[in-house]
Here is the input.
Amino acid sequence: MIYLKKQFLGRYFIHLAFSFVLWMGLGTSIAFAQSLKGRILDGKKPLSNAKIYLKGYETASTTTDTQGNFQLDLPSDVKDAAEIRFYVVKQGSKIRQGFQIKNNASKFVEIALKETEDLPLKAGNPDETEAKNSKKTEPVKDDKIEKVEVSAIEEINEEIQEIKKMDVLIGKMESIPFLPISKVLEAKKDTAKQTVLDKNINKIDDVIRAEERRMDVVNEKIKQEIQQITEILDSAKDLSKEDKTRYADRLRKLQEDLDARTTAFLQKQSEIQKQLVEAQNRLEERTQYSAKVLYSLTAGLILVSLVAVGLYLLSQRRKKQRDLIFLQKNEIEKQRDEIELQKKQIEIQASELEDKNKKMSDSIRAALLIQQSILPRTKALEDDLGEYFVLYKPKDIVSGDFYWSHRIEDKVFLAVVDCTGHGVPGAFMSMIGHSLLNEILLEQKIYDPAEILEELSIRIFSRLNTDKHKTDDGMDIALCRLEKKEGTPHLTFAAAKRPLLLYREGKIETYKGTRRSIGVVQSMDKDFTNTPITLQKGDVVYLSTDGYADAASPDRKTFGTGKLLQILTEIAEQPMNTQKFALQKALSDHCADEELRDDITLLGFRI
Here is the structure.
């Protein structure tokens, strides 16, 4: 037994235990395909609470009820119950008794256990004991019940024979190489091989149990023999000295044999316990190592999974970004095409507009030439006025302001006119005003300034207003007639909302016109009046539109009439051209780069 334990437990226990754990983890279980029913009798009485199990299948077991009846489920790999040996163990006993079904296992089996107390202890070869005890009563059979008689001694002899076979089994198992864990996992695929290994392990376990029971039986028999000898010695009074010596030697040998067996058994138990502890420690180490490996593999798998998920999410995000970029690219290309198309359309429109602007500019320049052609010539003004200047500054190319002069005999008519609007509309109004002044003066021969303004207002109103179209367009005008009476210059002034400025001896005097515009129906209830002025040598007369005083600075402040009068007072004694340059500089300083609000006309002459 020491050889058996050292060879098997020391070398294969860890491997088999680890394999068992793996098989349990992989879900190995015993399936039951059929069952064995029967009853166990102890003599003629039912045996209750007796354990029944299959040889090689410790887990396939059951217990009898109070009537000795039992039902034992058979594993699925048991093809024929007649080939399997069964064991019966009484409650509180370590001795098992075996039986084997001879016929169909589907029948009800009645098992009768033999008494063991009256069996004498036989010395000699166990094979002879087995041969003698093999002469047992054959089972009594009927159609429904198969009766089987079993004996504990028969089972013990049978186990002794199995002990002899263990060396052969151990030798065979020695040739089985120690399998690594990977091979044990692969063994799951071969159920038949695993079943054989399980059976071999169960056989070894059964042999160990049989050895223990055999030791119990032998020790019990030795004790009985010692007791019998002791009783003989106590009861027999006429024994000879030789018989007493022989019985004493026999008792001593039996006691020595019992002590030796007990010592050997305890030694075996100690060695087995030591090997079991070593195997358990190795199993624990392997289990901890396997757990660490499992945890490492699990952590690695989780890490790989997280990395895979992260890479997948990253790829999905990049795919979305690529799709978005592709859509944006298509949208940009579409917008670019639209912009290119719009650009071409704009270029076409710009070209057309440029052509139109060129034509319009040409037309405006032509209008400018026409407007300039109707203005008085410089030579004529010098002849009529003497020393003078004209500051004429249109807001646009053409102007709504104009100045007009005409001589009739010894009378000189001079006017500065501000038409409604500026640019092209104002230019058209200036053409109309210039034409009507010529008609009134030359054709109608009206020489009175007030009457000229009245007739001009009537004609402007009739020209601009019809039954279908009404307008408040008109003009503001300062008109004067210059003449000499008895060698003294006289001036007759009439105006529509424009003043006449007269500089004399360091002061400027303002003569206001009638608060009425030419051609505006709302102001026709007021009559134009003449203002006679006797002039002196050195006087300076100024006529202007409102454009100069209304000129704005970058901070939106107007130049103002007061500032204009101050400048005129300061420069009136200077030559007329110098005055013009001074007025231009003052206007430029005030406006800077600010665009003009209106056309500017300012005319001055010295008497």
Q: What stands out?
A: The first helix runs from residue 2 to 25. The chain has two domains: 2-235, 375-606. Residues 121 and 218 are 9 Å apart (CA to CA). The chain has a mean pLDDT of 78.
